[in-house]
Specification:
By secondary structure, this protein is α/β, with parallel strands linked by helices. The protein contains six helices and six strands. It is globular and about 45 Å long.
Length: 177
């Protein structure tokens, strides 16, 4: 069990090499990495639980989403460089793999958060209107307080990001800072 002194958890979503092949995210890469690294450093100092979530799919199509199956085109295959994390993480960071937008979907995330008695989650990563959004709404369903670090969240579509963050703040009372 990781030694944490805080009931907070930092959830890092999809900060993987492949996502930054998109030109729109590539432009956000450096400031986003700096902001997320700042969150990692702050949460490490506070003794918070740090969880790194990565999307990884199998080549045999077992984990593919409906869109991937319909297009017959996979993404983020296991054991490839494209799935590597772009951040410096503490040795104590917990690694979780997911196959869907929500980091809670068929993963051990909820069990880990319960084990560590986490109550407040800070979400960072990409993309705001998909994986960050769906993880935030799932966290709400599990009664976690959610904080969204605006400068540490990226998206290919800035307008969709703003709509998503505003919606989470208004409808789910999640803190955007």
């Amino acid at each position: 069990m990781q030694n944490t002194t805080s009931s907070d958890a930092l959830i890092i979503i999809d900060m993987q090499k492949a996502y930054f092949n998109d030109e729109r995210l590539q432009k956000q890469k450096r400031p986003l990495l700096n902001a997320i690294q700042g969150q990692i450093d702050e949460h490490t100092r506070r003794g918070s639980l740090i969880i790194n979530i990565r999307t990884i799919h199998s080549t045999d199509k077992d984990t593919w989403t409906l869109n991937m199956l319909e297009d017959d085109q996979g993404f983020l295959f296991e054991n490839t460089d494209e799935t590597s994390t772009l951040l410096r993480l503490p040795d104590t960071a917990i690694q979780i793999e997911k196959t869907r937008d929500s980091a809670f979907h068929e993963t051990i995330l909820h069990d880990i958060l319960k084990e560590y008695q986490s109550k407040t989650l800070t979400l960072v990563g990409v993309s705001a209107h998909t994986c960050v959004f769906h993880t935030a709404t799932s966290a709400y369903a599990y009664n976690f307080h959610v904080r969204l670090a605006r400068d540490a969240i990226g998206d290919e579509d800035i307008e969709a990001m703003e709509r998503s963050l505003n919606y989470l703040q208004k409808e789910y009372r999640q803190t955007v800072f």
